[in-house]
Every structure is written in C-alpha cells, then in structure tokens.
Amino acid sequence: MKPKTRVALIVPAYNEEHNLTRLVERFRAVREQLAGLAMEAELVLINDGSMDGTARVGRENGFTVLSHPFNLGVCGALHTGFMYALQSGHDCLITIDADGQHNPEDISTMVAELRRESADLVIGSRFLINTGYKKNLARYTGIVLFSWIVKLLTDQTISDVTSGFRMFTRKAIEFLANHFPQDYPDAEMLILLSKSRFTIREIPVQMNPRMSGRSQHNFITSLFYPFKNLIAIVVVLIRTFLAKKEELHV
User: Fold this and answer.
1) 121-125 and 166-169: which strand pairing?
2) Smallest Cα–Cα separation from 129: which of 164, 159, 166?
3) Can you give the residue range of the structural domain that contains 110?
4) Mean pLDDT score of the chain, rounded to an integer?
5) What is the pTM of this model?
6) For residue 181, what pLDDT is reported?
C-alpha cells in the first residue's frame, strides 16, 4: 500500500485564543477530509509569544504546539513552521491564519490544484475572481503595486501577493527552510521562488474579516510596510544575483 502524503497544517498565532477556539472543529474536519485524499495532516500551532490561552487551546484540541518565548512576528513564526516540517519529514506544508480570514474548507481545492498542475506553491487568492471581498483602499493599492513589481521581475502575474493562505511541496519546504525571507513572507518570497524556477499557481478563495480581536497590522506598520517590502525585494534580487554568479564560478 502506498504511504499517505504527510501534510503539516501550519497555523501561526499571536493572542488568538478566542478565534482558535471557534476554528478547531473546522480544522479537525479538514484533517478528516484530507485523510480521504490519502493525506495524513498534522495540525501545528506556532504560538508566537501569546499572552493569552492560545497555546492551551491548541494543546487541548490535538495541535502540536511550538511556542516562542516572545513575539517574533509573522516571518519568525512561519520560519519555525517550515523548519519543523523539514525536520519532521512532511511532504507538503499549508499555512493558514488563526483569525478566521481563511476558510479551511478550501484546502481540498488547493490540494487538487497542486496535484493537477504539478505546482510547487499554490496560493489562495481573494482577487483572482470577484468574490465580494471588501477591500481596504490603502492596503489594496499596496497589493496592486507589489503584484506589478512581481510581474516586472518574474514575468508572472500573481493577483494576491500578500495572501497568507498557501500550500508548498517538499521541494519548496526544503528551499525555504534555508532561504526564508527576513521580514515579510509576501512578494519577497514569491520573487525568490520564481527566480529559483519554482512553479507558482493561484486558486480563487473566499476570505473573511477577522472574527474577533486585533490584527498585528496597525496604522504605523501599514505605513512602513511598502518601504520595508521594497527594501526586502532589493535584497532578494542581490542575493539571487550573487548566488547565480557563484554558480558560474563553480
């Protein structure tokens, strides 16, 4: 009998006790759904220095809980998830938010796309089709800008460069565990993967407002986000150029 594909469902969380409590049954249902697709899913909660009961809710509901002693931010939390998946031998990795914005039920569609297109990364996009998603004008302007930059640098159109709802193959896990972005896992990651000849695809998904609580993205972080992302993109391009130059001299 062919062994099941092992999937790490990575859920980064910072003070998401109440939202996570409302999502656990849906995560369990998805795990059962994936079992029907010959996939064995492990629910992995990255507790990023939470000061509430986030870790407790995870432990009580069957999650593997990896806790940071203090808040490292989205990139730090995701990198921990990638390192865990790499070391634990998972074949695929899915990142999904703990605030209810992403629908776990869409994961089966991501799996189908990954298999059908032989992609290395599948992104759940709010903007691929009109799903009625209510756009924040300032944030959407930034998304359009970075989509244009990604298109310019990679010749690939990606409609939702900031979506955190993504599925990666083992090949992508191995690469990103060792080359993870330093600050933002958005356009920087997509450019890095595309420049390294990974295949990226998108599927349309419905996204929702946060169920409760406050986002880590406030007015100040939103203000600095475009500038820091641009710097990160420049760093990626320099790193890619130097890596290729080094290959030519080997």
Assistant:
1) antiparallel
2) 159
3) 5-210
4) 86
5) 0.86
6) 82
